[in-house]
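Posting for a labmate who doesn't have an account.
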Amino acid sequence: MPEQQTPLVQLGATRPLTLRVLGAGREPEERARLERRTRLLAWIGIGWHMVEFAIAIAAGFTASSIALIGFGADSLIEALAGGVVLWLFTGTRRGSSIAERRAQQLIAVSFFLLAGYVSVEALRALVNADHPAASWVGIGLAAFTAPTMPLLAYAKRRLGNQLHSSATVKEAAQTRLCAYLSIALLLGLGANALAGWWWADPLAALAIAAVALKEGRESWRGEGCCDAR
């Protein structure tokens, strides 16, 4: 929208002053730039989550660790959520409220899948009193992921708020959830390796599943866009 020039009269002078008034709404060029950055971050997230998936699954089966296997499953689901964001900002779906709503629902389903899987596996580990072996590879993975995922989540959420995209904001929430799960995994694996507390990681996983369920319900209802969190 072209800028408008509003004349102001300066006292004691005949020459008018002008004040720029910017049109409401984001310029198409600026939105396109934000969409490109959103797609780039989605690709970065997908790439890293696939690396997480491969390492966590391999380490999980080696150590018979339900927490690590669940973490690997979470990484795969998060890669799926990143793919949903790429789908949303590609082709004719850009700016479509119908596509935005569908993307929100797809991300909500991924939250529900994550919550269900982690809950079932954590309860099974508690009931069967499974004692996984120590996994220093898993501890290293969690120690790296815990501080890095919040940074990626913040960048995604900021772009989602700027684009007024609830689906992007919720996908950022799932990236943030990965950081919470990493901390829980780190505590659980560390407690098992150092103190023999095998039950620590399934308990922490149940708390993460509850958060995932809450995020999924909000995304399904269409909540969570453009807030200050």
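Reply:
Got it, the structure tokens are right above this. The two ends are 31 Å apart (CA to CA).
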